[in-house]
Amino acid sequence: MTTNESVIDKYLHRCIRCGNCKFVFRDYVPSCPSGEFFGFETYYASGRIRLAQALERGELDWDSSLLAPVFACTVCSNCEEQCLSPHANGIVDIIEELRRKAVNKLGPLPAHQTFANNILRTTNPYAEKPNHQNLREKHGLPKSAENVYFVGCTANYREEAIRDATISLLKKAGVDFTIVDERCCGSPLIRTGQVDQAEALAISNKELFESAGASRILTSCAGCYRTLASEYPAIDGNDDYEVLHISQFLGSLIDSGMLVIEQPPFAEVITYHDPCHLGRHMGIYEEPRQVISSAGVDIIEMESNRHNAWCCGSGGGVKSAFKDMALETARKRVQHAQSVSADILLSACPFCKLNLSDAANGEDIEVLDMVELLDRITN
Ligand code: SF4
Ligand code: SF4
Fold it and tell me: What is the pTM of this model?
């Protein structure tokens, strides 16, 4: 989670200002939600790199006018996908390092400070009373088990249908699992430059996984998955459990007959939105599609899909601090789904569902998570 070597020093000089990061390569449809919303160079990856360069060289001093360009980015990584420069994989690292520096120099954005304070007080960014003991009692879950279902704060406190569908699927399949007194995974803090607090959360969660005796952690949240799978091991390099997104686990339950699909094929047109933290950041594109297909559903793809998918607009602290940008970005994604005449827009992340649902309000399209769809049609 901490960087010993400055990624800014490492990658900064490699941007050649070609502008490829603004569009999907050769399709020339927009790729950057931030640049598209603000319409100004500083809000594209190339502009942010230039900003970092000027700060590093002392040509620019930190002041509050830099906060919006630094933080109004969903860290969706589409710029990295489209950039052909050898530094491409370092763009989001540069942006996240800029954020850590901004927090050091000027403090977090007020909206980000609020959720950090909430996490300190209640263990979750929504300031909700922790409910894990209630969930264990309600569902008759043991204290220790082979699998821990890491619910994640958004599924637990804002998109409960995703939590309930996931629990229902695991119970139908007879999976040995439990829920621990989890803390926020730390993703909202890491993405907004507040890294120190995130490390403490990670250590607490790892202790909880260990005391539950779990050899596998399952989660239905793309942001939690990325954090647990790729950032927790960096803390002590000592994770003796496997981390899977639920889409990587459900296929085996269907294949082995532990989950039985009961409903005949759908009449509705269904499309799938790739969450950035699951797709571009973790390379998981096909598993959710395979699970959805094995349920007898034909996915009609949107024009921008898989590694080129347009972001839902919620990540990187944008939904809390730049609400208009988050909503406008999600509206575009809903329009992409409508352009293929979708009745249902599926995703595999509660934060995507939350933001896409806000944008689809009043529209004739249903936004669902893949686990909700699967729970409706399995026994
Ligand atoms: S970040 Fe990459 S794609 Fe964008 S201008 Fe620089 S070199 Fe070109
Ligand atoms: S991470 Fe996404 S929003 Fe941020 S600069 Fe890159 S493409 Fe734009």
Answer: 0.96
